[in-house]
Predict the 3D structure of the following.
Amino acid sequence: MRKGTRKLELLPGVYAVCRLDKDAVLPDWAIGGPFSSITRTTEELSVVCPDAQVAPGVQKETGWRVLTVRGPLDFSQTGVLSSLIGSLAEKGVSIFALSTFDTDYVMVKHEQLKEAIQTLESAGHDVRRACE
């Protein structure tokens, strides 16, 4: 694998990005599943979780697929997300990026998944997509 390329894995399932009130209590449906992310700011509570878990009536953007960068990544590594999202932006692929202590995640809309994977592979990245 060329320098600067990454190994990614497509997580199973379809995900939603949800917006709740900034003072909302964290709902039970927000946690669990193979991947979830909770971010609270002074403006909102955002939740990323499997779409099937989201309670009815919650404001959400659905249809996201999750590509995880195989890690863990050292904090001294630079340009990890840039190496992935630059080529996606050039192709007009919308992304939603998240980072954790160990690694980075790039979410793309299901309708753009095939193009996203082709773009990443053309850029030299290795995408494991057994669960498409």
The chain has a mean pLDDT of 86. Residues 7-125 form a domain with the VC0802-like fold (CATH 3.30.2130.10).
